[in-house]
Specification:
About 30% of the residues lie in helices and about 20% in strands. The strands form two sheets. A seven-stranded mixed β-sheet has the order 3-2-1-4-5-9-8, sandwiched between helices. By secondary structure, the chain is an alpha/beta fold. The protein is elongated.
């Protein structure tokens, strides 16, 4: 599914609406970390006089009141307390140096921080095997898993204003299914992702062919997962938290 199609899905619309609801209104400036192509930054410009859209590659957009820049969340090139608000959604699950990223977000925020991440994600679902280095990768390069407690701990210097949970998911697996799927070469991983291998940095490619025992293993794993989904209670897909920064929290 391409990005434009995904943005029209009900789950993505719900996710973005909740983030927009949480964002404080009436402030002057906001930094969006992980802006991609700046689609949401344009929307933010309706509420903020100054919007900075940041990603690892400079977002290709031209919009009034929006500045697009290339940057790394672990090393933000801005002074302390530079933005009234920082929005960081669908980013921290990708960042290995997550403590450094959080420290930088807190440092450049003057008043508010809004965070959105997948909630208690089972990163064994949709995992991949790198064809270059042979190592097993979590889907979409999600190297971190979060819940309310872990986010409270990471942002302990800030006050929590509001917590919300969005969507529902039953995407869970188990040790046996995970073992069998890896033995099968992880053929159903998210190989259409843009994220490279988290170990060697190469582009991820699905297995070119599989042996008979690998096909049997993947079918058994898929069957076990289908049974588990029937028995599993849904849990939230995302957790969103608005934090408030007080003087001295940097």
């Amino acid at each position: 599914m391409d990005l434009e199609t995904y943005r029209q899905t009900a789950v993505e619309v719900e996710r973005w609406r909740d983030l927009l609801r949480l964002l404080p209104k009436g402030q002057h400036s906001i930094l969006e970390v992980g802006a991609r192509d700046g689609f949401h930054s344009r929307i933010l410009s309706e509420y903020y006089a100054s919007v900075t859209a940041l990603d690892l590659e400079r977002p290709a957009l031209s919009a009034e009141r929006v500045i697009s820049i290339e940057g790394d969340v672990t090393d933000l090139q801005f002074p302390a307390n530079h933005f009234d608000c920082v929005l960081c959604a669908e980013v921290l699950e990708h960042v290995r140096a997550v403590e450094q990223a959080v420290a930088e977000i807190i440092r450049v925020a003057k008043k508010d921080v809004v965070i959105g991440v997948p909630y208690r994600e089972d990163t064994r679902v949709g995992k991949l095997t790198c064809s270059s280095c042979g190592k097993v990768n979590p889907h979409y390069g999600h190297v971190n898993v979060f819940d309310e407690a872990s986010l409270r701990s990471l942002f302990h210097r800030l006050e929590i204003v509001e917590v919300s949970f969005v969507g529902q998911s039953k995407e869970r697996t188990n040790h046996l299914s995970s073992f069998l799927m890896t033995a099968a070469g992880n053929p159903f991983g998210t190989y259409d992702q843009t994220e490279p291998c988290v170990f060697c940095g190469r582009h991820m490619l699905g297995p070119a062919s599989r042996l008979t025992h690998q096909r049997v293993a993947s079918r058994l794993a898929s069957y076990l997962d289908s049974v588990q989904r029937v028995l599993t209670r849904p849990s939230p897909h995302w957790i969103h938290i608005r934090f408030r920064k007080h003087d001295g929290a940097c």
